[in-house]
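USER: If only I could read backbone structure tokens as easily as an amino acid sequence. It would mean a lot if you studied the pair and described how this chain folds. Here is the record:
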Amino acid sequence: VEKKTIFMIFSLIMVLLSFSHPTLAIEGDNDKPLLISDDEFDAMIEMSPTSDDYNENVGRKYSKKQNDYLKNCSKKMDVPNQCTVEVLADIIQNKSVSRDCCRGIVRAGKECHMEWMRLFFQIYQLKRFSSKQFSKTNEIWNRCSTEIGVISPFS
């Protein structure tokens, strides 16, 4: 009987502790940056031989049609490298994307923006942040589309 009581007390303490100290992985506060400094952000997006191999395998999972679609998305944005880094910094560090980047995102369209970011959050350096990706990517789209408005795909 004493073992049962001790086990119940231990279980209760563990449950209470888990509620009072949530981990970063399940924290629901989207306003807190996931990375603290710009140096950590720069180091995170650096490539390594291991990450290169992993990322090549991610790329191989896509069909030719999917790859062509993503390349076309990149072209529609006009500033894909700069904008991609800005979007990643917005998602991970809560830094806002520029107006030029927003213009490219809106020009490319929501589906294109969402798919492009889905691809990026599969790469080695970013996969640990994938739980934040969808809501933050959607938030960026909403903010940019409100700021920029509707853009003709031919403008």
